[in-house]
Amino acid sequence: MSLVLVASKTCPHCIRVVLTLNHLKIPYELKYIDIENRPDWFIKASPLERVPILFVGDAVLFESLVILDYINTLTPQSLLPKDNLQIALNRARAEFSQEIIEILWSVFSAKTLEAFDLQMKELRWLFSSLETWLQQTKFISDNVLTLADFAYAPIFTIIPALKQVMNFDIFDGFPRLRAYVDNLHAIPELKMSLVENYDQLIQKKIQSREPYFWKQ
Ligand SMILES: N[C@@H](CCC(=O)N[C@@H](CS)C(=O)NCC(=O)O)C(=O)O
């Protein structure tokens, strides 16, 4: 069955799918669209008009974590644990990453010191759960890479892309999370899953929101 992934270049929900397909060495075609200027064929195909979507033959899969679940079934090398409870735990922790993406964008969009502090407090509260999980295992839900880690990896490509303009240490007080991010960056397929000018695109996207931290 042919796989065609429709994505945008800086979308973390999309990059997690690209990364997982590359890691599992599953052949696919990748179509980038400009999310600010969605083509009609995409609006017709995507129920929420969001990326990513994955065409599997004539079927259209949406929601990145569901897409990850599906592509994980396409090879014998599963990225999920064997035990059903552990699978559910893995999925729950992957779902938690969705919340982190939302708050991270809010931190990077906050226009005043007050809004920035508020969103950072929220982000640190979410990070504290990650830190606790990472006290138990090397990765987010196991001592080996699992599907949940592929959900997190593109979150932690956004932060290094902004390192030249960030005047605060987002991982301050979270040593295990900092080490985890380094471990994610060691996934061999991560770099090839990003477009060549990814850092510049992320910087442009965030700068256009005129966030508080950028001006400091
Ligand atoms: N829950 C969705 C979120 C996807 C999402 O928010 N995609 C963003 C780009 S990163 C998008 O298409 N935004 C356009 C919009 O919401 O109008 C998933 O995990 O796939």
From TrEMBL:
Coiled coil: none annotated. Residues 83-212 form the GST C-terminal domain. It comes from the Eukaryota. Pfam families: GST_C, GST_N_2. Residues 1-79 form the GST N-terminal domain. PROSITE patterns: GST_CTER, GST_NTER. This is Glutathione S-transferase. It comes from Paramecium tetraurelia.
